[in-house]
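Lay summary. Proteins are chains of building blocks that fold into shapes, and those shapes determine what they do. In this project we predict the shape from the chain. Here is one chain we studied, written as its sequence of building blocks.
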Amino acid sequence: MVALGGGHGLAAALGAWRRLTPELTAVVTVADDGGSSGRIRREMPVLPPGDLRMALAALADEDPARQEMARLLQHRLGGTGVLAGHPVGNLVLTGLVELHGGDTVRALDAVCTLVGACGRVLPMADVPLDLVARVQTVDPDDPARTRTIRGQVAIASTPGRVRDILVSPPDPPVHPDVLAAIAAADVVSLGPGSWYTSVLPHLLVPRLRAALAATPARVVVVLNLEPQPGETDGFSPEEHLRVLQAHLGGVALHTVVADAESVVDRCGLLSAVRECGAELVLAPVAAPDGSPRHDPARLSAALATVVGAR
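And here is the predicted shape, written in a compact code that computers can read:
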């Protein structure tokens, strides 16, 4: 099983998939340029560690000692000095990369051992990426005008709807272990997560997209529960899917998982899914408390039907 994404969305997917298989690889976006990750990538020649750290914590063993280590990785330092706000895991990963001569994958494997991870965590590219988006302005007198915005944080915080997105550099190197994991996978999943800045970037890296197009794995997409302000304002589930379809570039899509309560137009979504040549799985996958997040146990139950259908 290979799960692609970043941030809280990927962590939710990993929390679900780990209930179904120990053979799990997370392939994580490396375009974050905000907060602690942004500070570190501006000062050090390393990949932004934040999303990688979150994936490592999500895969930590349930043993109390391992969970304490995972909590330490996630703990943000207090105070008002230069270290304030840095998660401990970001500093640990950065230090291990230095210790291993710049080898990020070796550093990630070391932390996987530290937390007893259920699987591996790998970066989607071997160099930090920048996202470049064309964003529609909110000027009512010129609704067709767009602006070019560079950087994940700037894209997420700029008013207006994202029209398209690119990665820079356009053809970054990808670690062989990532390509091997995709080639050997039975299932590959995309989403949930920030659509333009965590999900679609995986399809914009040529070597990743070629590997996804060639894999015999079942490709599963987990749709978001609601639009994300600044990225997908006003998007219906079917519009999320149509944007994804426009970026597939030869990648086959087999299954779309959506929360049954979040879909208003079921016929419209079913039509969009069939246009992709996929099947639709509607299930209660949202947290039962009504918050806009996926519940790992519920999502795992829905994904189990997908795995059983293979």
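What the prediction tells us: The CA atoms of residues 1 and 21 lie 7 Å apart.
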